Amino acid sequence: MAINRRDFVRITAAAGAGLALGRKLPLAFAAERSPIVVARGTDPAGITRAAVDALGGMGRFVKKGEVVVVKPNIGWDRTPELAANTNPQVVAEVVRMCLEAGARKVKVLDRTCNDPRRCYVQSGIADALKPLDVELKHIDERRFRDVRIGGKAIDKWPLYSEALDADRLINVPIAKHHGLARLTMSMKNWMGVMGGRRSAIHQKLDQSLADLMLVIRPDLIVLDAVRILTDNGPQGGSLKDVKKLDTVIAGTDQVGVDSYGATLFGLKGRDLGYVVAAEDMGLGSSDISPERVREIKL
Hints:
The chain is α/β, with parallel strands linked by helices. It has helices at about 5-10, 45-55, 90-100, 115-120, 125-130, 160-165, 185-190, 205-210, 255-265, 275-280; strands at about 35-40, 65-70, 105-110, 135-140, 145-150, 155-160, 170, 175-180, 180-185, 220-230, 240-250, 295.
């Protein structure tokens, strides 16, 4: 995406009196049928870099002097082996590439489900980021602001301002089972920037996740499937539910990335209600034909 997020916000009118603007990009930025890269190998950092390089490198997405928010899943008080949170080596490599591309500041954050102090440490992400010049931030409840979404299920919702205001936004979820949504990957990962009572969207979860795409549009998605959680998600807790795949999927279309991710669980993209809802709204493509997907083996 060539447009700078901050510049786009400045030229877009607010959608309602008293409501802060989210990053609602035109549908031309849906990246329909944009490439999807699947990298496989035993080094999580190496396959992460290879996947992004195959899309043109991090310099395609992050420019010198920009502020970048990297949004992994750090929601649970679980160790990396249990596959409840994004692999720490994947997160660290994404941050490292952002810094190499010239980012002025990189922030890593998530609104956790368990105690954030434990989640950030137990996930291994805090330790993985220690050598890097990065801000690993706990959510500050004062920094949510109401955003007009104008979706079919969500009209407005408080969203985290630091994610909305970043020049670049990178989604780094993990692929895993979810008891309600069937799977949680890139689209559902944005619940981690929602304020308020998030459980309220569960009644119309699929459409709500699609609605969020109207205002939260990442520049890049890096889906961690180094280990996937095949059952008892999203929290897990047993190694018997974990499958090691040594895979990372990267792209710019969340619908496409999640559709490929679904195949890791024996499903198709359109088996997921939120993929159907988003594709029907013109927000991406579930096509994962060989012409679209590039596979790399390290």
